[in-house]
User: Fold this.
Amino acid sequence: MPTSLALCKFVGSISLGLLTGVSYTLSTQSLPSLLTLPSAKPAAYTLNQTARLATLHIRTLSSISTISLALAFYLSPPRVRHPYLLWTALLAATSGGLNLAMDKSMKQRVVKDDVGDVNGEQVEKKARDQQWIEFVRTGISGVGFVMSIVGLWGDGS
Assistant:
């Protein structure tokens, strides 16, 4: 197997694994911790910063994984061109695209991080919604990660 093909498969699989780990950590550690803050104002600020940074890293990992796995499929010779590469690339893209669905659903519930009006119920609702999206993302990217590992094992890479 050419080195560039193996490199694309490994980079795609590793970045998909990292994406799964980031989503799992957000859903089980970071977001529940925000709900223990004593007041709504620091919770809203921290939630907005966490969401902004998480979105940046999730989009980056999803893009790297999708591009690497799709490129590996494209570079593969026809006799070893396995569809698991496309399926895992699709799952990585879907996992990254969940942010778009979340952004549309959050337009109505804007949490302000100014010094003024911060509603604790809105902060909690936004944190719970984001936690649910991260649980779903963990499942989707986890399935893709397992598929990529089994596919790599089957390829003998």
